[in-house]
């Protein structure tokens, strides 16, 4: 789908405030409310906008530990990828999972109430998963930037 500058402005505004009213959005992009609504629906139907969500503050809800965990698997274990994938999907502590390049197979983002909870997760679940060979944890000390926003400028660079 080819996005024009108006589409990109709509996307940037929705990323900043997913609860903005259609009327306010239309005014900010200089469209009529009906035209703006048509564009938003087109962006949703085409999959450019995949869903809307509330962003929670982990510290406010009691999740003090944020960790990135590299997991290396034993390749001699049959169905290691399928088994590991099934396991991580059932663990609420794992909030992000990525297949990566380099020495490890996976990078997990793990949230836990405290260090004891995190330790229990690693020792009782992660290490006990069939095929896990090595685990390397990096505890986040301070977050400088955390965003899923795709900047309109990035999209415009390709045009």
UniProtKB/TrEMBL annotation:
Protein name: Lrp/AsnC family transcriptional regulator
GO biological process, one term: response to amino acid
Alphabetical keyword list: DNA-binding, Transcription, Transcription regulation
PROSITE patterns: HTH_ASNC_2
A GO MF label: sequence-specific DNA binding
Classification via Pfam families: AsnC_trans_reg (PF01037), HTH_24 (PF13412)
Keyword DNA-binding: yes
Membrane-spanning segments: none
InterPro entries: ArsR-like_HTH, AsnC-type_HTH_dom, Dimeric_a/b-barrel, Tscrpt_reg_AsnC-like, Tscrpt_reg_AsnC/Lrp_C, WH-like_DNA-bd_sf, WH_DNA-bd_sf
GO CC annotations, alphabetized: cytosol
PANTHER family in the cross-refs: LEUCINE-RESPONSIVE REGULATORY PROTEIN (PTHR30154), TRANSCRIPTIONAL REGULATORY PROTEIN (PTHR30154:SF46)
Organism: Undibacterium nitidum
Domain HTH asnC-type, chain residue ranges per copy: 3-64
Top-level division of the source organism's lineage: Bacteria
């Amino acid at each position: 789908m080819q996005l024009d500058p108006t589409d990109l402005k709509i996307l940037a505004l929705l990323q900043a405030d997913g609860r903005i009213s259609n009327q306010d959005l239309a005014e900010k992009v200089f469209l009529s409310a009906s035209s703006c609504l048509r564009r938003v629906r087109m962006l949703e139907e085409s999959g450019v906008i995949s869903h809307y969500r509330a962003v929670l503050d982990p510290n406010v809800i009691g999740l003090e530990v944020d960790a990135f965990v590299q997991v290396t698997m034993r390749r001699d274990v049959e169905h290691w990828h399928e088994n590991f994938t099934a396991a991580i999907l059932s663990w609420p502590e794992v909030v992000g999972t990525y297949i990566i390049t380099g020495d490890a197979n996976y990078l997990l983002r793990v949230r836990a109430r405290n260090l004891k909870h995190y330790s229990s997760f690693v020792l009782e679940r992660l290490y006990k998963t069939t095929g896990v060979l090595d685990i390397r944890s990096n505890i986040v000390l301070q977050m400088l930037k955390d965003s899923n926003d795709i900047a309109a400028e990035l999209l415009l660079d390709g045009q």
